[in-house]
Amino acid sequence: MSYLVATDGSAESDEAVRYAARQAVAFYETLEIVHVLTPDSELVDGTIVLPGEAAAVDAGESVLANARTIAEEAVGDEPIDVKTQLLTGRPADAIADYADEADIDAIYVGHRGLSEEREQVVGSVAKSVVDKADVPVTVIR
């Protein structure tokens, strides 16, 4: 059994990583941290190419490494089993599909936070994950 937390490297997702790590340790679960790559594709001479693909993968690996560090620091001396995974596609779809395929028990995502023009609202990715997932989703503010 595992808990899944999605991160984009934002402060909100860092909070979700901290919370999910504490939950994973409390319930002796594995914590799976995912980051979704969403490179823009282009049609070049009839072939779809992903510009900067290597750079996107490097950046994604960096986001995951930072999230692993945040998770480990959040639980102090408690042992935690952390796995990381880069995903591709539309973030909400990729997260929900991975959770289904990997037999995840719970998903944690960060809240979008305040915008200048709106009250606090759930971000579109978090809301879509809630709508698409077949397991409980916790949105962290």
Note the gap between the termini.
25 Å
Sheet with most strands:
5 strands, parallel
Domain count: the total is 1
Strand content bin: 25-35%
Characterization of the model:
41% of the residues lie in helices and 26% in strands. It has 141 residues and is α/β, with parallel strands linked by helices. The chain has a single domain (2-140), classed as HUPs (Rossmann fold), CATH 3.40.50. Helix 1 (11-26) crosses helix 2 (53-74) and helix 3 (91-101) runs parallel beside helix 4 (124-132). The radius of gyration is 16 Å and the shape is globular. Residues 113-121 have low confidence and may be disordered.
Jot down its keywords.
141 residues; alpha/beta; five-stranded parallel β-sheet; two-stranded antiparallel ribbon
Fold blueprint:
Blueprint: E1 2-6, H1 11-26, E2 30-37, E3 42-44, E4 47-49, H2 53-74, E5 82-88, H3 91-101, E6 104-110, H4 124-132, E7 137-140
Parallel strand pairs: 1-2, 1-6, 2-5, 6-7
Antiparallel strand pairs: 3-4
Helix pairs in contact: 1-2, 3-4
